[in-house]
Design brief:
single chain, alpha+beta, Purple Acid Phosphatase, chain A, domain 2, eight-stranded mixed sheet, 8 helices, 25 strands, 30% strand, globular, disordered N terminus
C-alpha cells in the first residue's frame, strides 16, 4: 500500500490544477498545502477533524459564509452540510462532512486537514484549557487572559503540534469565560467575550487551539464547563461528534471507537449524575485493550471537587473489575497532572491530564511543583504546572508516556503495560 506521503505527492499535481496553481516551484507538498491559519482564516476561522462513534472521521469547518464549502478528498469533491442554525449567539456557520474511510488527502481550498491514522503511534492528551472568568457563590475568579504566561493554552497547543502527534485527546473543559470581566480585573480580561457564544468560544478554544487542529485529528470529551447550564449549546453546536440534538441535554450515552488495537469508550461526564448509568451500559470487550476517556476522575479520593472529599461520582461496575478488561482511565477536571495507580485493588491506572491552560491547583507544598505520593493503596505522581501528555506506542500492550511541560520538555516518564487477563500497571518517575 502507498504510504501517505507518496500518495500525497502523486495526487498533488491534479489538486494543484484544481486550485489554479501551475507549478510546485520546487516546494514540498507540506509547504504548498498548509492548514487554514493565514489568508483563509477570515473566511474559515477554524477547521478540524474529530473522531466520533464507531470511529467515524468527521471534518468540521466554521465559516462566515452562509453556505458550506466543498472539500476535496483524494481528488474527489465532498460537499459539507450545515450543522445547526445560525443565531445571534452563534453567528457563524458550522459545516460538517463524514470523511470516507482511509481518506489520505483532505483539502479545504488549498489547505490540508489532518487525517486519522489506522494505527496511531503517538497520542497526546490535554485538558482543562480555557481562560477562567467565572463566579461561584459570589466569588469571582479571573485568570489573566492577555498574558501567555498566565494563560498559556495557545503556547501549549503549539508545543503539542511540535511533537507531531497522530491523535489528540482533549478530556474536556474548553470554555471558561462565563461572566463579564469585573472592572477591578480589567488589566486581566478587559474586552473578553463571555457567555455561551461564538465570540467567547473563538477566544477560549478555536483561536488558541489552531495549531492542534492543524496537526492531528481529535477525540473530544465533554467537561462540566460544557453542561447545558454553562456552555452546553456551544458544545453541541461545535464539538459533539454526533447528530445535533433537538435541545441541549446532560444525559448523553457513551460511544465507542477502535483506535489501533485499543477500544476507546468516550463517556459524557459533564454531569456527574450521568456517569454511573453510562458506565453500566458499557460492555467489556473480550479482545484488545480498552481505555475510558471522560472528564471526571472517579478512582482517586476527592477526585471530584463538587462532591465531598472522599466521595466518588461513580464506581467501576463489577463486570469491569476483572483484571485487564480496562487498562486505563484517562480524565481531566482536576487542574494538574496526576498519574495514579492502585497497588491493592482491581482499579486500572487513572491518568488525569488537567493542566492544559486554565488556573492550576496550588502545589500542596509551596513552590514544589512535582509531588510523589506512595502509600499502600496509591502510587501517584503529581505536577502542578502547565503541560500535556504524550503516549508513544512501543510494542503491543506497552506505551511510554512522557509528561511534558508547556514548552514540550519532558518532566516525567511512565510505562503503561497492558496484558489480557492481568491488571495493567503504570510506573512513573520524574526526570
Ligand atoms: Fe471540570
Amino acid at each position: 500500500m502507498l504510504n501517505k506521503r507518496l500518495m500525497a505527492s502523486l495526487l498533488i499535481p491534479v489538486l494543484l490544477t484544481v486550485s489554479g496553481c501551475r507549478t510546485t516551484g520546487g516546494k514540498s507538498v507540506e509547504e504548498l498545502v498548509t492548514t487554514p491559519q493565514s489568508e483563509l482564516e477570515n473566511r474559515f476561522p477554524a477547521a478540524w477533524v474529530e473522531l466520533g462513534s464507531e470511529g467515524a472521521s468527521i471534518a468540521r469547518v466554521l465559516t462566515v459564509d452562509m453556505s458550506c464549502p466543498v472539500l476535496n478528498v483524494d481528488g474527489r469533491t465532498l460537499p459539507m452540510n450545515i450543522r445547526g442554525t445560525r443565531t445571534e449567539a452563534f453567528n457563524i456557520t458550522t459545516c460538517e462532512a463524514t470523511l470516507p474511510a482511509h481518506a489520505q488527502l483532505v483539502l479545504l481550498s488549498k489547505y490540508r486537514l489532518p487525517v486519522p491514522s489506522s494505527d496511531p503511534k503517538r497520542i497526546v492528551v490535554i485538558g482543562d484549557t480555557g481562560c477562567e472568568i467565572k463566579e461561584d457563590d459570589g466569588k469571582v475568579s479571573v485568570q489573566n487572559c492577555a498574558d501567555s504566561e498566565k494563560w498559556p493554552f495557545a503556547h501549549v497547543a503549539q508545543s503539542i503540534a511540535s511533537v507531531k502527534p497522530d491523535l489528540i485527546i482533549h478530556v474536556g473543559d474548553y470554555h471558561y469565560r462565563e461572566v463579564p470581566c469585573p472592572k477591578k480585573y480589567s488589566a486581566k480580561c478587559a474586552g473578553a467575550s463571555v457567555g455561551d457564544t461564538w465570540a467567547s468560544w473563538k477566544e477560549d478554544w478555536f483561536t488558541p487551539a489552531a495549531a492542534m487542529f492543524a496537526s492531528a485529528p481529535l477525540i473530544l470529551a465533554r467537561g462540566n464547563h460544557e453542561l447545558c447550564a454553562r456552555a452546553g449549546n456551544g458544545w453541541f453546536q461545535f464539538l459533539d461528534p454526533r447528530p445535533l440534538p433537538a435541545a441541549c441535554t446532560d444525559s448523553v450515552a457513551p460511544y465507542w471507537m477502535t483506535v489501533g488495537d485499543h477500544h476507546i469508550a468516550v463517556v459524557d461526564a459533564a454531569d456527574d449524575k450521568n456517569m454511573q448509568s453510562s458506565f453500566d451500559t458499557l460492555k467489556p470487550n473480550v479482545s484488545g485493550f480498552t481505555w475510558w476517556v471522560l472528564h471526571r476522575p472517579f478512582l482517586t479520593d476527592g477526585a471530584d471537587d463538587e462532591l465531598s472529599k472522599d466521595a466518588s461520582p461513580a464506581k467501576l461496575p463489577a463486570p469491569w473489575q476483572a483484571p485487564g478488561l480496562l487498562s486505563a482511565v484517562i480524565t481531566g477536571h482536576k487542574h494538574l497532572l496526576s498519574l495514579n495507580s492502585f497497588p491493592k485493588n482491581a482499579n486500572p491506572p487513572e491518568i488525569i491530564s488537567g493542566n492544559g491552560g486554565t488556573t492550576l491547583e496550588k502545589p500542596k507544598t509551596d513552590n514544589q511543583v512535582m509531588e510523589a505520593v506512595q502509600t499502600a493503596d496509591l502510587v501517584s505522581l503529581n505536577y502542578f504546572d502547565y503541560g500535556f501528555l504524550v503516549f508513544d506506542r512501543m510494542d503491543v500492550g506497552k506505551w511510554q508516556i512522557q509528561a511534558m511541560d508547556r514548552d514540550a520538555n519532558v518532566i516525567a516518564t511512565c510505562t503503561l503495560t497492558e496484558q489480557a487477563g492481568v491488571r495493567s500497571t503504570l510506573n512513573c518517575k520524574p526526570i
